[in-house]
Amino acid sequence: ELLDGFGVRVDPGRPLHTLGIGTQQMVALARAVSVRAQVVIMDEPTSSLEPREVETLFRVIENLRGQGIAVLYVSHRMDE
């Protein structure tokens, strides 16, 4: 359900390592949210993502912030 909220569709029976990097990152983020993490730390989360996946990630981050979850985001890209 969390992944659907992130706009990501995943077959629950599919091994994680067979998913694309962007999908793997969304799964990791969903795991953090599912355990009610109060802080999410991201190190270079967009480094291997396609532009569409970057947009999705930023929407998810805004959603998390709206829920009161602190997000620490590290990037070497000045445009982020």
From TrEMBL:
Molecular functions (GO terms): ATP binding; ATP hydrolysis activity
Origin superkingdom: Bacteria
The organism of origin for this protein: Streptomyces sp. SID7499
Record keyword Transport present: yes
InterPro entries xrefs: ABC_carbohydrate_import_ATPase, ATPase_AAA_core, P-loop_NTPase
Record's keyword terms, sorted: ATP-binding, Nucleotide-binding, Repeat, Transport
Cited Gene3D superfamilies: P-loop containing nucleotide triphosphate hydrolases
Keyword Nucleotide-binding tagged: yes
Protein name from the UniProt record: AAA family ATPase
Domain ATPase AAA-type core stretches: 12-76
